[in-house]
What we know:
By secondary structure, the protein is mostly helical. It has five helices and two strands.
Amino acid sequence: MREDTWVLILFWLIIPLVLYLLVPSRKVKHAHILFWFAQFIMWDMDIIDVQFNLIQFPYRIFEYASKTSFTLHYLVFPSICVIFTLYRPERRSWVVRAGYDLLWTAGITAFLFALDAFTQLMHLVQRSVLFRLFVVYLLLGLTRLFYVWYRKGFRSAEDGTESAA
């Protein structure tokens, strides 16, 4: 079996366990909403990247169905967005929040470049570090903005000041 297959198997075994361990039981509903929204924007961004030949996925699960990576954009990156958003220090100073955002953005970008360098799971055609940092920061930011919007509406519905629909 190829080593890339083992990497995919490890992703499918480890990521659900990490989510189970790190998502508090009172935040499971929030984690689900975040996960689904992150899947939506990651999948859309991935389709755009593939169509404009900014990224390629030489080894993928559904080789004939799509040119995108099902595992990376259906499981791995949405899970990262969930953990990032749930643990973001919202009540801390802007310096701490900016450092948190920068650290996660740099870590995810390094992860992308490591996948490119050591596996056939992805090939970054557009190898600009600044471009990837921007894209990752944008995706994390969109997920966080959605979560803030969702929680605001959720709190209003709980208070009875707004309909739950």
